[in-house]
Design goal:
The protein is mainly alpha-helical. The protein is built from six helices and two strands; from the N terminus they run αααββααα. A two-stranded antiparallel ribbon has the order 1-2. The radius of gyration is 12 Å and the shape is globular.
């Protein structure tokens, strides 16, 4: 699973934004379960998502959806979550419960 799919899926399903606290929880889970290393702070992660600046914004020290995707959440879900395998989707649901 790629980082944009992970962040995009989490935002599409929970919508509250992802800050430092959430990143720490995601990082711990990913290291143990998904073999994804997210050993970065929130600004470094946002920088990695810069190719998706139409989707993600940085507001109040959190990664959030842009206004367009906030109003059209179903498109964000289709773009990032719906392309995942069933196993990856299950991992996203677990992460939502953790954060």
């Amino acid at each position: 699973m790629l980082l944009p799919n992970l962040i995009g899926s989490l935002l599409a399903l929970q919508g509250n934004g992802i800050g430092d606290k959430e990143i720490k929880n995601i990082e711990q889970y990913c290291l143990n379960q998904l073999q994804i290393s997210i050993n970065k702070n929130i600004t470094e992660i946002f920088y990695e998502l810069s190719n998706y600046d139409d989707c993600f914004a940085f507001y109040d020290n959190k990664i959030v959806m842009t206004e367009y995707y906030l109003k059209n959440n179903h498109i964000l879900k289709k773009r990032f979550f719906d392309v995942l395998s069933d196993d990856e989707k299950e991992e996203i649901y677990i992460l939502i419960n953790i954060i």
